[in-house]
Amino acid sequence: MGKKAKPSSKKKPKASKPSSLVDTRVIYCGDNLDQLKKLPDNCVDLIYIDPPFNSNRNYEVFWGETREKRSFEDRHASTQAYIDFMRPRCVELHRVLKKTGSFYYHCDWHASHYVKVMLDQIFGENQFQNEIIWQRTTAGKPIYRNLPKNADSILWFTKSNQYIFTPIMQPLTEDDKATFASDDGDGRGPYNTQPIINPGDRPNLKYTYTDLKGRKWPSPKTGWRFSEERMRQAESENRLVFGQKTIREKYYLSEREAKGKQLSNIWTDIPIVSGEEKLGYPTQKPLALLDRIIKASSNENDIVLDAFCGCGTALVAAENLGRQWIGIDVSPTACKVMAKRLRDVCKMRQDEALWRAGRGFIVRDLPWTKEKLREIPPFEFENWAVYSLGGIPNKTKVGDMGIDGRIFLVSATPKKKEGHLDFMDDWYPIQVKQKDKVGRPDIDAFEAVMMREDRRKGFFVSFGYSADATREIGAFFKRTGKTIIALTVKEILDEQIAMKLA
Ligand SMILES: C[S@@+](CC[C@H](N)C(=O)[O-])C[C@H]1O[C@@H](n2cnc3c(N)ncnc32)[C@H](O)[C@@H]1O
Questions:
Q1: Residue 496 pLDDT greater than 70, yes or no
Q2: Mutate to test the pocket of ligand 1, among 60, 329, 410 (most ligand atoms within 8 A of CB)
Q3: Residue 362: which residues within 8 A CB-CB, separation 6 or more?
Q4: What pLDDT was estimated at residue 399?
Q5: What are 402-432's pLDDT values in tens digits?
Q6: Whose CA is nearest to atom 25 of ligand 1?
């Protein structure tokens, strides 16, 4: 493995100019299908997405020091459902991408082959540029009947052939340097050689070369890589090696060290997020990864869009590299977490007036207020509360046996069931009441549910709790060791709490 890549620590470039095409430095809260429809055609330069995978799992989020566990659902039960969900979104993403733009789709072995076919259909097969294999980790539990799956796939498509790209150069390793084994003793130092054969078929480079000693060198099948003039120049500079059958070119260690070598599509030098960078968001991607993609496929001031932006890694990388950015996420909590990250890490101010003046950033369409939540129908309130906790609402609203939703745990030991892993056995119940004060009888009823279902933890959501209800929650814990976490709407809505928990 090479040296570990780090996000650029260089001083941030000058603040980028806002775009006149579209509002930038904005986080939109909402389903990206709706949000993308509001954007004009051909308006962004680079898109990176990292949608929830088709892994039939629920991700667990560790909310900061309290280690309060919440989860958000990876809702796509089948590959077809996942592709059906992603296709209209990718059509919209293709529409908003500029002609010179690039699109990176981060996925893994679960669905990467289906995603590739879908994107071939949307972008055109010829617009597929590469599949980046990102080796996430070298560790892994030993498995006896397979190889550890340690890599993600990042599929790179462009909208046309006129796309922006800057090769990614890396320093030579000691092994690379050791291949420079020849030296003419003329002061140019060690060199290696490579054939001057054309990799493609270039008819105009098919000629017989006559060297300075008058020897004839017939063209290789696909032609030479150099014109006759350039070949002569190289020979007079003593940069050619005449073998038995063909001609090779010398390349010197000193020149290669100055340029570096181009990184391939196999990325093994970026470890998963750890240390200070880690926010506890389960699928947070490393800044170094986004840094690399953004540098390769955009220029300063270009607009970077992440339509599934989680805790905002792409936005932070874009901001640090002097790009404009737009973020979209359906989860209000994710939007709050990334806003805090932009404030803390990028020292940006979240301020409408400042943003209008071309600085700072804003969050749009954060959905709920306490007042609005009091007015909506009970089933909508239930859905809101359950989704806010990262749970899955109960499908049946009548006869729900006292459970409005469930939080599933990823750390649960998976059971093998009909060929796929079933994580569904380890869960916490959620009970929701659209009431100002939940009383003792409501808590008694929920305790009965927890006893019946044999759950060690449960969540209750309402606008408030009577003193009796709070006392009973304490007494229940003492009697049974089971915990009821009583959350208020204010606590869920309150940005301060979300930040404290993030
Ligand atoms: C895998 S996470 C992205 C992590 C991100 N790359 C990072 O480094 O933090 C996927 C995100 O997509 C969001 N999401 C799922 N469905 C969405 C939708 N329809 N519209 C917008 N965001 C969505 C989820 O809320 C989640 O935050």
A1: no
A2: 329
A3: 25, 26, 27, 350, 351, 352, 355
A4: 60
A5: 899 888 765 444 444 444 444 456 789 999 9
A6: 331
Distance from Cα 351 to the centre of ligand 1, integer Å: 24
Distance 220 CA to ligand 1 centre (A): 52
- SS3 category, 252: strand
Q: Does the beta carbon of 61 lie inside 6 Å of ligand 1?
A: no
**What distance in Å separates the CA atoms of residue 78 and residue 76, rounded to the nearest whole number?**
6
Q: Is 328 in the pocket of ligand 1 (CB under 6 A)?
A: yes
Domain 26-139+147-168+263-364, what fold?
Rossmann fold (3.40.50)
Query: CA angle 81-82-87, nearest 5°?
Result: 100
Lowest mean pLDDT among 120-129, 145-154, 169-178, 327-336: 327-336
In the reported structure, the alpha carbon of residue 47 is separated from the centroid of ligand 1 by a whole-number distance in angstroms of: 14
Least confidently predicted of 11-25, 139-153, 185-199? 11-25
Model pLDDT, residue 66: 29
User: Whose C-alpha lies nearest to ligand 1, atom 19?
Assistant: 31
> For 15-33, how does the pLDDT look when each residue is reduced to its tens digit (9 = 90+)?
444 566 799 999 998 889 9
Looking at 3.40.1350.10, 3.90.650.10, 2.60.120.620, 1.10.760.10, the CATH number of the domain 370-501 comes to 3.40.1350.10
- pLDDT above 50: residue 180: yes
Instruction: Indicate the pTM of the whole model.
Output: 0.71
Task: Count how many Cα atoms sit within 13 Å of the Cα of residue 16 in the half-sphere of its side chain.
Answer: 22
- 67 C-alpha to ligand 1 centroid (Å): 21
Ligand 1 atom 7, closest CA: 284
Question: Ligand 1 pocket, 103 CB below 6 A?
Answer: no
- Substitution candidate for ligand 1 out of 272, 274, 309 with most atoms within 8 A of CB: 309
In the chain, list all ranges with CATH 3.40.50.150: 26-139+147-168+263-364
Identify the DSSP state of 292: H
- List all residues 6 or more positions away from 384 whose beta carbon is below 8 Å from its beta carbon: 368, 373, 376
What DSSP state is assigned to residue 465? B
Number of the ligand 1 atom closest to the C-alpha atom of 312: 9
Please tell me the predicted confidence (pLDDT) of residue 499.
45
Counting from 1 in the atom list of ligand 1, the atom nearest the Cα of 285 is 8
DSSP letters of 166-202? ---EEPPPHHHHHT--B--SSSS--EEEEE-B-SS--
> How far apart, in whole angstroms, are the C-alpha atoms of residue 32 and residue 306?
10
Does the beta carbon of 331 sit less than 6 angstroms from any atom of ligand 1?
yes
